[in-house]
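The methods section describes the discrete structure representation at length, but only in general terms. The central task, working out the structure tokens from the amino acid sequence alone, is never made concrete. Nothing conveys this as quickly as seeing an actual entry. For illustration, here is how one protein appears when written out as sequence plus structure tokens:
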Amino acid sequence: MIEEKDEATGGPARAAANDQDGTAGDVAAAELPDEGVATAPEDRLAAIEAELAETKDRLLRALAETENVRRRLERERDDARKYAASAFAKDLLSPLDNLRRALDAMPESETTDPRARSLRDGVAATERELLAAFERHGLKRIDPKGERFDHNFHQAIFEAERPDVPAGTVVEVLQPGYMLHDRLLRPAMVGVAKGGAKADSNAAA
């Protein structure tokens, strides 16, 4: 038998529609995310504290790196100011050496001619003035005669037999060295004693 539709009440047709609406509601509810799970306050606080600690760590690292860069730039600036004249000063060492050679070529005791003596005095005054200017700008002369040989500041050119001098003593300075502040500009070229009886007696003592 064919079931007739109740036009007044819409019986079976309305029931079918209700069934369809219910199925669609269930599908929609299944597709919605589960927003009902609540986060505990302790967990939320722990997450915030962890994020804060991480941010603080990044900030401290950035500050430390900035401070390191600042110090490095200051050090490079100071070095540039202190040693900017190193090349110019090194070029002046050869003329200064020539002044000393001129003075050594005419010893004061052997200079009897008034004109030659006046010339020697002028050369000596020029050398003193140039050395004074070097001192004002941090350039110091290394003249280690009679001192202990130091490979950090001296360059040994030869060794000499000197029985009365302890071994390792600078007995002759062929060319003086120079320091620019705390940096070696040129080592002193020296002759070093091999030592002898005096050195042996000192060692025994």
